[in-house]
C-alpha cells in the first residue's frame, strides 16, 4: 500500500533460507518512530474501502504490516586465529570472535471479513474482490484445520495470504489472534462460524525459538585484512634489512677508497723527495724500487679488492632486485585480487542498475501498453459508433423498402394495441370497482351503526326479527370486506404479472407517453416496482426506460408520478454504470429542479435518496456540483422532515468520504466542493441532531472533510474544530471517536490551529 501503482506483487521463496519475499513490494528503512507512524498513515490512506449494504467502510483487501528487525551481536569465542605459510600467527583472540545476527519479523495483519453476496449487495469489481477475499480466508481456514488436527500436509501454498503467514501459525513465532463478531441475530451463522474458527486456531501451539546467524562475511573480511597487514609488515622488515646491508657495503667501499687516496698521496710525496734528493738517488734507488714494488702490489691488491667489491655489489644488487621483484609480485597478486573483488562488486552493482533500468523500462512499457489499450478501446468504441450510425442508415433504407408491408404490420399492431387498451380498460374498471366497493363498505358501516341505534330503541318489540336482520347484515359486511381484500391483492398481482409477462417491457414504457393520466400512473408504478429488483435494472436501461423516466420527470406535474419516478431513479442509481448514465442525461439537474418546486415529504425523501446514491461516485462530484445537486440537498433541509434530513446526511457523508479518498491519493487538490457550497456550516449547526443514523453520517462527513488541509480555515471560522474535539470525546460510536482523534492528530494544519487556540 506504500506503492499503490504496483498491483502485481509476486511471492518468491528463498530455497536456501526458506524465507518468503515479495518481489515488487516497496521496502523502506525506518529512521525513527515518527517515520514509522508516517509510513503507517500512508498505507492506511491507500487502503481501498467502499460502501456496501452492511458497512459504509468495507475493506476490499487484507492489510499486512511487515517490520523486519535485525541486530548484530559480537560473540564471546576466543582462541580463533589464522596461520599463514611463513608460520606467522595472526592472533584474533583479542577481538570479539564471530559476530552473530539476531533477526525478527513483526507482523500486524488486518483480515478483511468474509462476505455473503446476497447480504452485502456487492457487484461488478466489488464482487470479484469479495470472491478473492473469501477464497484467501478459506485457504487460511484449511491451514488452521490442518495444523489443529496435526495433519502431515499443510496447504500453505494455496494462496498468497497463507504463504505470508506461514511463520505466524506454524513456525517459531508468538501469535495473537483477535476475532470480531456482532450481536445481531441476523448474522448468527457468521458469528458461530467465526467463533469455531477461533477455537480451532487456539489448538495450534507455536514453539518460540531465537533465530540467530553467524556473520561469516564480516569475519572473513576481518581475517583477510589482518593477514594482509601481517604480510605487509613482514615484507617491510625484509626490505629494511636489505637496505641496511647496502649501507654497510657502501661504508666499506668508502674506507677502501680513502686508503687508495692515502697511498696515492704517499707516492707523490715520495716522488717529490726523490727529485729533491736526486743526489741520494743511488742510495735510495733500492728503496724506491722496493716502494714501487709495494705500490704495484698495493695497486694490484686494490684492483682485486675493487673487482671483488664490484662483484659483491652486483651480487647484492641482484639479490635485492630478486627480493624486490618477489615482493612486487606478491603485492601485484594482492592488488589484483582486490581489483578482481572490486570488479566483481562493480559488476554486481552494474547488474543491479541494469535490472533497475529494466524494471523501469517494463513499467514504462506497461504504462504505454495501458495507454495504447485505452486508445484502442476508444478507437473501437468510435468504430462501433460509426457502425451503429451505418446500421441506422441501413435500417432507414430497409424501412423505406419495407413500406409495402407496413399495412399488415400496422393492422397487427392495431389489434395488439386494442387488446392492450381493453386490458388497461379492464384494469381501470377493476380499480373503479374497488373504489365502489370501498364506498359501499363505508355506506354499509354507516347503515349498520344507524341500524344498531334503531335496534336499541325497538329492542323490546322486534328482538327476533331485528337480530336476524343484523346478523344477516353483519355477515354481508364481512363477506364484502373479505371479497374486497382478496380482490385487491389478486388484482395487484395479476396487474404486474399480466403487464410484464404478456404485454412486455417496451409496451409498458410506451404507456409512459400516454395522454391518460391514470394509465401513466399505473405504468410508472409498474416500472418502479421492476426497478427495485437488480435483475430488471439492466433491461430497463437497455430498452430506454431511463430516458422515458427522465423525460416524464421533466414534463409531468402530477405529484404521484413525480414521487414514484424519483424512487425508481433512486433504485437505478444504486448501480455505478447507471449513475454515469443518469448524470450524462441531466438527471441530477432534473432532480434538483424537482426539489425546488415541490414540498411533498415523500417526494423529497426519494429525491434526496437518489442524489445521495450519486454522491457515492467520486468521478461525478464536479458534474454533480455544477448541476446543483449539493445545493439541492441543502435546500431540502427546509422541509424539516426527519426522513428527508436522514437521506441528506447520508449523501453528504458519501460525498465527503469519496472526496477525501481522492484528495489523499493525489488526484485532486483544493477546498472541498461541499465547503464551497456551504454544507460545512449546516453540518456544524446540526451535528447534535437526536436521530442516531443522521448524527452518525454528519459526524463521519465532518471527520473526512477535516482531513483536507485546504479546509482548515473554514473549520476555524465555522467552529468545526470545536465540534471535532467534541466528537472525539462524546460520539456514541467508538470508530467515529477514533477517526476524529486520528484526523486531529494527522492534519498538521489542524494541529497548528489547536496550538494557537
From TrEMBL:
ARM repeat coordinates: 503-545, 544-587
UniProt keyword Iron, yes or no: no
Record Pfam families: Arm, Kinesin
GO biological process, one term: microtubule-based movement
InterPro entries, A to Z: ARM-like, ARM-type_fold, Armadillo, KIF11-like, Kinesin_motor_CS, Kinesin_motor_dom, Kinesin_motor_dom_sf, P-loop_NTPase
Coiled coil regions in record: 225-252, 295-447
SUPFAM superfamilies, A to Z: ARM repeat, P-loop containing nucleoside triphosphate hydrolases
GO molecular function annotations of the record: ATP binding; microtubule binding; plus-end-directed microtubule motor activity
Domain Kinesin motor: 1-204
Subcellular location: Cytoplasm, Cytoskeleton
SMART domains (UniProt xref): ARM, KISc
Keyword Phosphoprotein in record: no
Keywords of this entry: ATP-binding, Coiled coil, Cytoplasm, Cytoskeleton, Microtubule, Motor protein, Nucleotide-binding
Gene Ontology cellular-component annotations: mitotic spindle; spindle microtubule
Stated family: Belongs to the TRAFAC class myosin-kinesin ATPase superfamily. Kinesin family. Ungrouped subfamily.
Identification of the protein by name: Kinesin-like protein
Annotated source species: Acorus calamus
Record lineage: Eukaryota, Viridiplantae, Streptophyta, Embryophyta, Tracheophyta
